[in-house]
């Protein structure tokens, strides 16, 4: 491994200093929202952000949650291995899940408007046994994702600064825990926007440096020539003519299948994505997920097309950290292609920028995992089985304890993996084997009334067993042992991932034939109740109805919301299917089938499209949230200024707002508890 480019002090400074800065910033934002926007940190606000988040912030939160360390590091690694096909397979194979999940997000809000986790929906429909099965799969998903974040991030920090890996493992989550405990999901979503904003700017800098301003490369033409020479020195086995400039890559296509299968599990079973859907206001869930999915596509595609190809182009240059040798495979698997390329391009500035974006990716996604996991333990375990009448204050306390406890657990687990030699790359391709058998049953829970309890309960368990057998038997047959190198290779992982995702297609029909079709009426999902936060409101001296997210919905409001969600559901099904076909079939397959090797002009166009797309992403999830929340920002700044200058006290502002709101009401509509039955579609 190459020598660290930066001093250890830089590593500690960013990990601790920047972590503390974000924590203090989010604590300040939480204070401002409470003082001037009447926000109270109730159990509902902590876990659902009041269910009022708009599409711009939903989009940036989706982008941030889906931008793991792996998004930047692993995508650059597959580009280094397979050429231009790698970034596209990574991006398209992980974007379609977000787009398709938009439909599931709409169905969740329509079927279970008061849910805090998707597991509450499982419990409401099938009962305890199925709930426990899916709770295990859900928690394993969160654990695997968290491990990938911490393991990948700590390896990069260590490689760039020389900071001890174990120190990085334990210190990376510290700042995240602080602002998550203080601000809950709302703080997480706001921090997601800040992280996404900074991340996109750095990616744009990398792209423009590589393809426009660098003295070493500086144009698509120079990169193209360097890749042509690289293919002559070390042609890629399985690629058309050994070229790095073709979509026809055998190993790249295998990775694509592994990638798309594994990512179905980490979206459809990760409670973090359901959290975002729950946090979104009804009219903003669909546009938020579509905006987030399309904006995210450019991040791995352009990052890897820039840094992965730059590594290939520059590894014969003295500026490259491993010169004169090629990168060892262990370094590629550890996710070090991007940092090495950044160092070769920009020296210490590139190393610092890489450290910053990896820190952003790790901490923002980790905060989502902390909330996702704590909400499962709080609502699906504690409130469901131990204390059904838990007060809002008690639920908040449990959420805080679980956030801290989970961070300690995941850091300790990561240390064990580090000693065992398990890298980011291994975890990334292995996750689908473990979790993907629960994807189809979980999806059908919300969209098909005919799935019975036993099909939902047993299909994931049997699918996991079949996947493990396929994975390990293939590994044993391929290379005769079950070591990390063999079990982590493409063919065994391909077998395990595909069997995991598709085996329920066999088991669900069998259990449906044996136990019969269910005739679920969707009523029990509507009976999921919110947390009781009246004790917190009483202690704060406010009316819960006046707190954002505390309003109890009326029957008229509920029916109007259902109409909007039903319309959004129809739009989402058409939109997401069309975009999925475009990204998986219409765009890549003709180039794969023809074996086309990019010309210099085509490669230039390919790069230009990527750069235009990343700028669109920046406007969509970087600037649009500011525009969308301009009125709230304007009012908040105005209230802060009046408070600082002593002109108006916040209590006076709140009293004036309440008077205006009440003056527009005649007879308040009658409130109802459980809503009327929603007709099954």
From TrEMBL:
Sorted UniProt keywords: Membrane, Transmembrane, Transmembrane helix, Transport
Bias-annotated ranges (Basic and acidic residues): 672-681
TM stretches of this protein: 12-33, 53-73, 88-108, 129-151, 163-182, 194-212, 253-274, 286-314, 334-362, 395-420, 426-447, 454-474, 494-517, 571-590, 602-627
GO molecular function, one term: putrescine transmembrane transporter activity
GO cellular component: plasma membrane
Keyword S-adenosyl-L-methionine: no
Name under which the protein is recorded: Sodium:solute symporter family-domain-containing protein
UniProt topology in membrane: Multi-pass membrane protein
Family that this chain belongs to: Belongs to the sodium:solute symporter (SSF) (TC 2.A.21) family.
Compartment list: Membrane
Annotated source species: Cercophora newfieldiana
Residues covered by region (Disordered): 658-681
